[in-house]
Specification:
125 residues; mainly beta; Umud Fragment, subunit A; six-stranded antiparallel sheet; 1 helix; 6 strands
Length: 125
């Protein structure tokens, strides 16, 4: 008589759908040495999916371009906004129509600190 092993457990239908584990860090971080995380305060970027309490991954190695969401320092205050450059002029634009654009005035400094690569929104459970 031949002996054949037969599984005694219940077969899982999920076995057909085994996928690689999701690694959020792999998705957000291209340059580990130049990526920083900031918690957002306020709702000026809500229509871009960045809400009060969101955490943004900011990469300083990415060259900022017009249309990117950036972390910028305006004088001494940090802000997250869309970067718009046109004819050598810089403008920071919110993703909430109740906020005005930030256009540098004489003597005001705007430094683009890094490009936002992604956002993590944590919901209270």
């Amino acid at each position: 008589m031949a002996r054949v092993a037969v599984p005694a457990g219940f077969p899982s239908p999920a076995d057909d759908f085994v996928v690689e584990r999701l690694d959020v860090m792999k998705l957000l971080v291209r340059h580990p040495q130049s990526t920083f995380y900031w918690r957002v305060k306020g709702d000026s970027m809500r229509e871009a999916g960045i809400h009060d309490g969101s955490i943004v991954a900011v990469d300083r190695a990415v060259r900022p371009r017009s249309g990117h969401v950036v972390l910028a320092v305006v004088d001494t205050e940090c802000t997250v906004k869309y970067l718009h450059e046109r004819a050598g002029r810089v403008r920071l634009r919110a993703a909430n129509p109740t906020y005005p654009d930030i256009v540098p005035r004489d003597g005001q400094t705007i430094e683009v600190w890094g490009v936002v690569r992604g956002v993590v929104q944590i919901f209270a459970v």
